[in-house]
Amino acid sequence: MSDLSDFDDDGDEIEDPEVDAVKDEEDDDDDDEDGMKEDDIVQKPLTQEIIANEGCLSLLCKTGNGLAHAYVRLDIKDREITDISCLKVFVHLRYVDLSINSINDLSPLNFLTHLLTIKADKNRLASAKLNELPYLQILNCSENKITGCEGIAHPLLETLNLGGNQLTDLTTLNATKLARLSQLELKANKLTSTAGVHIVELKKLYLADNLITKIEDLGRLRNLMILHLRNNNLSNLDGFTDNLRQLQYLNLRKNDITSFSEVEKLKCLPMLRALILRQNPVCFEEGYRVEVLVLLRRLERLDQDVYLEDERQEAEEVYNARQEMEYQGEGTSNHEVINSEEEDQ
């Protein structure tokens, strides 16, 4: 599994800034909508003059035929741009950063068939719909106004970030067209269920800060290693399955898990090593840490702390004592059945 050093002191996975994912596990102050209506926005289309005069292009590389060179990286981050139609002619671009603008249409990118990375977070997109881009690997459309997953169908896409949008379900997520997707960020939407995620190659799934009440439809995620469900409305843990055979890290912080009987339902996860349950009612129960370890004996870390040897010994003693009591109870029950049968004779 991932080394436990991959998780910070709060028990949450340390983030990878390279993919610009919105995965902060601390309670932070989200950037509020600026409240501006579309009519109030000053139109500022991107022009070739802006691109040239503001040094927006970089990374000179050979083009496909190897006989010419072109800049392949474009950065127009935080320039109040509202329209990117002029990008249609920049067909050699591979990396574009459109973050923190007022763009509401990505369709000009359909002409850029060599794209590897698109960063379009913090714009005014209602959709992430694009034609199939054959080489696209990273797409970040977080913190927009996206309501569905239509038109996200890129065969080599590995990382998709739709956090901070207005998704209510995942029925339009096209697993067939996202066969290579390994990381899916859906934090801070309006999801009420996990249903709709059928992407077999998925390794990391981030669903924090939604309205989820049900764990559903995760049975196909046999390669999933990390699952974040922090700050949802889960009161039970039905829906987990042993098909999640690679799941190592599970964050359930700030839900409504009240009993150890719910925690026990995680026994079906054979590779679970790190579990975050902080800010659930169950974590205030007496003997919380030891009881969780009795139920989930392979666990290495609970919340921010790795289990110590004395905790393991105590949990082992409790487990063995319960096994002995259960064995004796079964023996007594069997003896009573035998005596009852003899009396009937």
From TrEMBL:
> What InterPro entries is this protein classified in?
Leu-rich_rpt, LRR_dom_sf
UniProt-listed Pfam families: LRR_9 (PF14580)
Coiled-coil stretches are none
Keywords assigned: Cell projection, Cilium, Coiled coil, Cytoplasm, Cytoskeleton, Flagellum, Leucine-rich repeat, Repeat
Q: Which organism is it from?
A: Clytia hemisphaerica
| Tree of life domain | Eukaryota
Where are the stretches annotated Disordered?
1-37, 323-345
Write down what this protein is called: Leucine-rich repeat-containing protein 23
- Which cellular compartments is it found in? Cytoplasm, Cytoskeleton, Flagellum axoneme
List the Gene3D superfamilies hit by this protein, alphabetically.
Ribonuclease Inhibitor (3.80.10.10)
PANTHER family named in the record:
LEUCINE RICH REPEAT CONTAINING 23, LEUCINE RICH REPEAT PROTEIN
